[in-house]
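ok so i was messing around last nite and threw this chain in just to see what happens. nothing serious, just curious
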Amino acid sequence: MAKGYWIAHVHVTDPEEYQKYVSGARAAFEAHGAVFLARGGQHTEAEGAQGRERHVVIEFPSYQAALDCYNSAEYQTARNFRAEAGAATIVLVEGA
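result:
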């Protein structure tokens, strides 16, 4: 079975509110087998620069697990904090 991934590009405008998102989303990530492959750190926007300073890649056991995590009540509650803390683009993708 192919793994699933979240690819996120984030611009944080309110670090305190963003920390509420991070804390709130933790349970959803743990429940769905998430493994963070990249989170913040050094990066280069080689093409199509979005001006976002935080880039995240999360691996899930399956594409369905990635979808289930995103749609879970725990994540959607935490997502509300992220929406107030900046701008994000998140893509869910099935692995090769």
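not much to say yet. The helical segments are 15-31, 63-71, 73-85.
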